């Protein structure tokens, strides 16, 4: 059998709408074996590493998967806690909060679930569950505010690959970015302002994003521009002048040049320029994870203080902060508006207010 079939089809069943929230994924445990599995899946994705396949296979299997799993497992061991991986924990919480808020707003025929692009729970498993519950319209929301082929398009690929084996495909929508969505900018600004109320304002706010190779930007990936736009809008909303904040890029991987300025090098250089009090916020990470907790919260703090910095604060990611959940629900509602006009005349007023066309 080439295609998966839909079992027990019944006529006159109401179509359900499925919301699939996704994130990158994380190892099952902070052990070298689990890291090897996770890194193999992640780094074999041609959207992530754009290097000729045979050459990359030799480097990945001959070098990286021999040494990196042990090193990365040590780093992950510092962030895993009794709830497991922070990324998995926060994504689960975000999903539950989105479901609850949409239900409170009167949405009835919805299933809300989350999946990870790499590792567990995998996209195929979760889609199987959603379709078994009668989902016939699917909205996928990757929790990457800024579009990058390495993350957003890779998620699309995984959904598309899953669809190639299904007999009955759903109506389908995909959120490719929300880097300038007003409610997202507002949630980020509020998170920073709340931090200022408790800890004061720094000399410089560092807005640090995960990097990608500079080559991807030169080949047309809009990620770099979208990061800068998010920064500009957050800074504008906070009333910051251009010399009061910086956009930097972290988490370099491999030897080629990545997007600059690098977060670590910037933090090492700032004290010599008289900047001794900084705060770092990561607008590209919707949930705290290894790259924020360990790399920004610990490693880069050390660089800054060793270079002569006096005060360094990490401002937590948006996680399940109510303003963040509200922003994601607004994004979801905008994308659902058209379907709901079709399905539920009672919701027409609200859907039309959100911009749906009849
Ligand atoms: C938020 C956006 C992200 C982009 C863009 C991104 C690009 C990218 N990442 C790698 C390599 C690695 N990333 C790793 C961890 C990691 N990356 C992101 C997000 C983005 N990556 C997150 C949220 C995480 C943390 C996951 C967690 O479990 O907490 C890792 C694994 C960690 C390690 O071994 O250092 C690697 C490797 C590349 C090559 C890339 C773009 C080309
Ligand atoms: Fe990454
Ligand atoms: Fe890292």
Automatic annotation (TrEMBL):
Top-level lineage group: Bacteria
Keyword rRNA-binding belongs to the record: no
Keywords: Cytoplasm, Heme biosynthesis, Iron, Lyase, Metal-binding, Porphyrin biosynthesis
Keyword Iron recorded: yes
InterPro entries according to UniProt: Ferrochelatase, Ferrochelatase_AS, Ferrochelatase_C, Ferrochelatase_N
E.C. number: 4.98.1.1
Catalysed reaction equations from the record: heme b + 2 H(+) = protoporphyrin IX + Fe(2+); Fe-coproporphyrin III + 2 H(+) = coproporphyrin III + Fe(2+)
Residues of the signal peptide: none
Binding site residues for Fe(2+): 210, 291
Pathway, per record: Porphyrin-containing compound metabolism; protoheme biosynthesis; protoheme from protoporphyrin-IX: step 1/1
Subcellular location: Cytoplasm
Chief location: cytoplasm
Function of the molecule: Catalyzes the ferrous insertion into protoporphyrin IX.
UniProt family annotation: Belongs to the ferrochelatase family.
Name recorded for this polypeptide: Ferrochelatase
Species, as recorded: Alkalimonas delamerensis
